[in-house]
Amino acid sequence: MAMSAQEIEDLLRETFPEAKIAITDLAGDGNHYAAEVIDESFRGQNRVQQQRAVYAALKGRMDGPSGELHALALTTKAPD
């Protein structure tokens, strides 16, 4: 089952309420998205730590072959 961009943003907002979040549907199929998440909580974290935090915020929606979200290209950073 596919996810909407709004569903992805809603999940991310639960963990990153003050973040700047942009979600782009890359293929128009509800399964391949790009997400940019800019949040102060990322300051001092490396890219892997930031991306792990985003994946954790998705609460298993990308887990395994039955995950609702197939692919998510991530850009994460702290605000400038």
Automatic annotation (TrEMBL):
Belongs to the BolA/IbaG family. It comes from the Bacteria. PANTHER family: BOLA TRANSCRIPTION REGULATOR (PTHR46229), BOLA-LIKE PROTEIN 1 (PTHR46229:SF2). This is BolA family transcriptional regulator. Pfam families: BolA.
